[in-house]
Design goal:
heterodimer; A: alpha/beta; Rossmann fold; 6-stranded mixed sheet; 4-stranded antiparallel sheet; B: about 450 residues; alpha/beta; 10-stranded mixed sheet; 19 strands; about 25% helix
């Protein structure tokens, strides 16, 4: 589904990603962990197409197509979804109104007929339940006055509504209390299927108690320095990131 | 050879006074004479006049104007259907005015006695109307008022009768039609009597776009105690139309007046003066403005809220979106007299610039002479939030739609205040259409 090859990227001449290689197959959940400043969120931004990031070399293929060639909205329509670390508040844009437009555009791109008002309503109701997202919130302006947890749940609600193929959760767990964390994780677990995939970016192992990843990667200094099974996350939680740094140092020596 | 504008004004004045010996009363003749002398002395405002510093009227006065219209048609029913105007089709009592003259044959009005409608010439001998016409206004800050008083012909007087609540808005449609460039002077009076409630909508269009229409209008509004008047100005139409709209509102205690002024791409020149005098206690005044400008438009909103008595609230919110080479001005003055304790006066002006060539001049002016008041003002100028736009795009929404959504959202603070739902929809739709069509223009 996703093939990242030797990706180098940065902002304003600062290299942040220094040769990322990653392959994600349908049905898989990948966790990306790593210390602050390692480039985790930059990777998410590059995948979503944020324009202040400059890709200097390497390639990203999504379902056989060149992702780097696409504008952000085309990537979204092709099936990439980024759950933002800091979702913006947009007073005056209605949550459901904007989702309606987004779904229309996504379906049009995929050659699907638009949802009828009834179908849209039905999907809204169903997905709201799935992520335990309050109807009151869904009907408000986009994230306006939402708490941190409500914003994150809204991201998962949008994810559920848009039915993407590849979802990237950028530190969705940060700022969540334990109940919200459970709700978000339950949502993801219900949404996962053999046709879609998830990249979960997180600092902590906590979220991975609820969402069990197939692969865990450790990102440090712009590179994936270690990959392993879900037990790697536990090891990181226990020992911190320093041992990995030492590990790499030993290898290079 | 072109006749000098000043000579033409003099000629027009002399012809009005010649006619006047037979048809106009002494009071009107005296009024005209005084106003003409004032205008002769002041002349047209220049950019040296503080109130016209950023609004140069010279370019719009260059035309070889006629002061009397030369109509191109008499079948206005068709002309209106062909040309249309912004706000056409609103559910309202529609009053058609051609070149300032009320046209009952194409208008529909309430069948009951809730309002009275008359041409200004037919009622100016009434004491109350005469008093309003003779009210001293600040000609110095706006010499166009003096010109208007000296030369006005046409205009309408609408009175909403005591305790009457209108079931539908009154929609005034000001249409111009002349085969030559036409400098129009019209005077309107709206009176909301005690306890009445009404909505007045105004639309403006030039039917013969081959020639310019410079409309210099003065509107006097009185809102009596316990009355509520909602006043909408819908300003969107042909570039051949230039507007100078001066509105004076006097409110008695316990009254409410809401003004909504919306200016969209089209008219090349718009100057709105909106002056509110709060002459009693417990008055509520709201002024909501939205200007979305493009091309070489100039849109200037000057407001003045005069708090003369205690316990009143005024609220101004003006939002601007500037594109192309357009230029906008917001000048909002709030004056709180020493006696006007417990005043709440708020003012806000936010602007988004969409182009490197667009300009906004924003100037809040608060003069507060009472010490127990709550007053605030804020002015911002910025660009569309790139993070918000990226957020929308990351959900699959294209750039144009995203911008349009964000502009609608920016305007939301104003549009959500529109109590007339038809106008709210009309405006939101007009914003979307403008943004989708013109978003990429520099």
């Amino acid at each position: 589904m996703l093939k990242i090859k030797d990706l180098h990227a940065g902002v304003e001449g600062n290299n942040i990603l220094k040769g990322i290689n990653l392959e994600v197959k349908p049905g898989e959940i990948h966790a990306i962990m790593g210390p602050n400043g390692s480039g985790k969120s930059s990777l998410a931004s590059v995948l979503a197409g944020k324009d202040n990031y400059e890709v200097t070399s390497g390639s990203i293929e999504f379902e056989g197509k060149d992702l780097l060639d696409m504008d952000p909205e085309i990537r979204a329509r092709e099936g990439i979804f980024l759950a933002f670390q800091y979702p913006v508040e947009i007073p005056g844009v209605s949550n459901l109104g904007f989702l309606k437009t987004a779904i229309k555009d996504v379906r049009e791109h995929r050659g699907l007929p638009p949802l009828s008002a009834k179908e849209f309503l039905q999907r809204t109701r169903e997905k709201q339940q799935l992520v335990e997202f309050d109807t009151q919130l869904a009907n408000r302006s986009l994230n306006e006055g939402f708490s941190g947890g409500e914003k994150k749940r809204n991201e998962i609600f949008q994810l559920a509504m848009l039915e993407p193929k590849l979802s990237i959760l950028d530190e969705t767990d940060s700022g969540l209390d334990i109940d919200a964390l459970r709700i978000v994780a339950n949502g993801v677990n219900k949404l996962r299927s053999e046709n879609n995939a998830f990249i979960i970016i997180t600092h902590y192992q906590r979220l991975l108690d609820y969402i069990v990843p197939d692969v865990v990667h450790v990102l440090a200094n712009g590179q994936i320095v270690k990959s392993g099974g879900k037990e790697l996350a536990l090891e990181l939680e226990e020992k911190g990131y320093d041992w990995i740094k030492e590990d790499i140092l030993n290898k290079t020596v | 050879m072109e006749i000098d504008l000043k000579d033409q004004i003099k000629n027009k004045f002399e012809s009005l006074c010649a006619i006047g010996q037979s048809s106009e009363g002494d009071s009107i003749q005296k009024l005209r004479g005084k106003a003409f002398a004032t205008f002769e002395q002041l002349g047209f405002p220049t950019i040296k006049n503080e109130d016209w510093k950023y609004t140069n009227v010279k370019p719009i006065l260059k035309d070889n104007f006629s002061f009397t219209p030369i109509p191109t048609t008499s079948s206005y029913e068709e002309a209106i259907k062909d040309k249309g105007y912004f706000g056409q089709g609103l559910d309202a009592y529609t009053l058609i005015l051609i070149n300032g003259i009320y046209q009952p044959q194409w208008s529909n009005i309430p069948s009951d006695d809730s309002i009275s409608i008359a041409a200004v010439e037919d009622v100016w001998d009434q004491v109350a109307i005469d008093e309003i016409l003779n009210k001293d206004r600040n000609n110095k800050s706006n010499p166009f008022i003096a010109l208007n008083t000296a030369l006005f012909q046409g205009g309408i007087v609408i009175q909403i009768k005591k305790n009457k609540v209108l079931d539908k808005p009154i929609h005034l449609v000001h249409l111009g039609d002349s085969s030559e460039h036409y400098f129009q002077q019209s005077k309107n009076i709206f009176i909301a009597e005690f306890g009445s409630q009404a909505e007045i909508i105004e639309s403006f269009e030039n039917l013969n776009t081959e020639s310019h229409l410079l409309r210099n209008a003065v509107t006097e509004i009185r809102v009596a105690a316990n009355a509520k008047l909602q006043h909408y100005k819908l300003q969107k139409g042909d570039a051949s139309l230039r507007l100078i709209e001066h509105t004076e509102v006097e409110q008695e205690g316990d009254s409410q007046y809401n003004n909504y002024t919306f200016t969209l791409p089209g008219y090349s020149f718009v100057r709105n003066n909106l002056n509110l005098a709060l002459e009693g206690s417990n008055i509520d005044s709201h002024m909501y403005g939205l200007y979305l400008t493009n091309d070489h438009q100039l849109v200037d909103n000057h407001t003045l809220v005069d708090h003369q008595e205690p316990h009143c609230e005024s609220n101004q919110m003006y939002k601007g979106i500037m594109m192309g080479h357009s230029r906008a001005i917001f000048n909002g003055k709030v004056y709180v007299h020493p006696i006007a304790q417990k005043t709440n006066a708020f003012q806000q002006n936010n602007n988004i610039l969409f182009s490197d060539f667009a300009t906004i001049y924003s100037k809040p002016q608060l003069e507060i002479f009472a010490d127990d008041v709550k007053c605030s003002h804020g002015s911002t100028i910025g660009q569309l939030d790139p993070d918000a736009l990226f957020y929308l795009k990351a959900r699959g929404i294209n750039e144009e739609d995203g911008r349009s959504m964000l502009v609608n959202a920016f305007a939301f603070d104003v549009t959500e205040k529109i109590e007339n739902l038809e106008i709210k929809d009309l405006l939101n739709e007009a914003i979307s259409q403008t943004m989708l069509g013109k978003a990429l223009l520099v």
